[in-house]
Amino acid sequence: MSATSALRHAVHRIKAAHSALRTSESAPAFTGGVVAAGLGLGGFAMLVVALWVVSPFPDSGLDGALHVAADCWLLAHGSGLVRTETLSGTAAPIGVTPLLPMVFPVWLLFRAGADAVAPASDGRAARSAVAWLIGGYLAVGAGVVLYTSYGPVRSDALAAGLHLPVVAALAAGAGAWAARGRPRIPPPAWLSRAPVSVSVPLRDAVAVLRSAGAGVCVLVAGGAALTAVTVALHPGAAGASFTRLSEALSGRLAVLAVAVALIPNAAVWGAAYALGPGFALGTQAAVRPAGVLGEPVLPDFPLLAALPQPGSGTSLTLVALVVPVLAGVAVGVLAVGRREPCGLGRTAAHAALGGLTCGFAMALLTGFAAGPLGTGALEDFGPSWWLTGAAAAGWTAAAGTPTALVVRWVRLRRAAASAEYDQGEGHQGHQAEEGPVDGRLEEAPATAGGATADAAPSEV
């Protein structure tokens, strides 16, 4: 095949795909994607411009404030940034994604996906609407990447190209799936051609996802509790760091906004600490329940000022290991169905797969919550995603599987006891119903005899 014919074939395929996707809902869906991206950008712009207005030294100008807002919007999608103005002259990456601002664009995409498929008549039209929605969102994203490709803090085009489509597809697809009544998703075609058939009943999948979600919630909640206790035990250090960073009101508000945005990140870091691997504070230091190894390189920030000092751990720090045990217990309890518990093998499989899924979710969260903050000593900052995921899977599966078996045994015993009680009540009720009838039958002759005996003297 010549180059000309190959090009014609590619153009023909693109035109065919375009015509297949083009429906009456295409233009509204594309506009919905543009509006969702614009609302997200507008929300970040309002916050940054408000801080810029109250700043006593707005040296960067309005264009600089809008540039920061666009950078924050990209960072909320997991796309890294690059800081060009450094002391060494080498560009420094910024890879830590604030998890709280990420909720805003994801929610907008979820709602836009639900609205896009509302007028769709069938599944094909719904898929086409979601595709056009993602296209409109990515069109705005491409413009934002070009706008932020210069300046002291610029976007990373490769990271944006990897993260923006994934976040948009997952969030908009979830919204469309929920709006369509959560239909069953058919397995990929290659699974049907596999030598061994792969079939997972919906009930098993729900049990696994329910138990994994419980494990993630317990781990993150435990990490947040550990963070809150650490800050509460060192209020002076966090307050001193807060006042040192800025003297102006606008600067302190900005520091407060960044600290609030990083609270979910701190919860994930606390969960990694409780799981055992801990987190890195630079390439030469690590914080774990067993102690702080090395000399941490800490930026001056309130959430980092309350970390423990270098040295071995204590009995108080080892108490943090209770958190993954509780997460495993939660996985085991929710892996067992309340109505009809499964067999031993399926119950154990639900708990084990729930633990593995929990580990995968924690690895994904850790990958967003950690990353580099520069070069050299700050190249490694935060927990390791694969160590945290492996530890979460191991803890929750090891503690959840025996818990699920015990919960299953208890629920079966209660069900058997309840059935025996109901059977006994039914038997007693049946006897109570028969009792008065027998009594009436026995009293009838006596009454008749009494009547005869009473009548006899009158006859005499």
Description:
- The chain is globular, with a radius of gyration of 32 Å.
- The longest helix has about 80 residues, at about 385-460.
- The chain is mainly alpha-helical and about 450 residues long.
- Helix 5 packs antiparallel against helix 6 (about 155-180) and helix 15 packs across helix 16.
- The model is unreliable at about 435-460 (pLDDT under 50).
- The chain is built from 16 helices and eight strands.
- The strands form two sheets. It has a five-stranded antiparallel β-sheet with strand order 7-6-5-4-8. A three-stranded antiparallel β-sheet has the order 2-1-3.
Main attributes?
460 residues, globular, five-stranded antiparallel β-sheet, three-stranded antiparallel β-sheet
Task: Chart the SSEs and their pairings.
Blueprint: H1 3-21, H2 26-54, H3 61-75, E1 81-83, E2 92-94, H4 99-116, H5 123-147, E3 153-155, H6 157-179, H7 189-192, H8 202-233, H9 235-245, H10 249-261, H11 263-275, E4 279-281, E5 285-288, E6 291-294, H12 302-305, E7 311-312, H13 315-318, H14 322-334, H15 344-369, E8 381-382, H16 385-459
Helix pairs in contact: 2-3, 2-4, 2-5, 3-5, 4-6, 5-6, 8-11, 8-14, 8-15, 11-15, 14-15, 14-16, 15-16
